[in-house]
Amino acid sequence: MTEFTDSKMYEIQQQDETGAVLSSRSVSAMSGDSAARQIDELTNGAHRIVVCLDGLPVTEMGVDYWQQRMRRR
What we know:
Helix content: 10-25%
Number of helices: 2
Largest sheet: 4 strands, antiparallel
Radius of gyration: 12 Å
């Protein structure tokens, strides 16, 4: 049985309503969800959060969902 303990480099994008990237940063995480939890604050005008691995989206969520379910507190 293989244990998955290797983290990967994810890119977190905060996008506006049209899909334009307002901010982007790379983080090391075990999963797309754990990468999204590393967001410290939202960029003004952000409508959606997209987490990418190797340039492909693996997790997408609205800002409201992130604030209610994913935000570290």
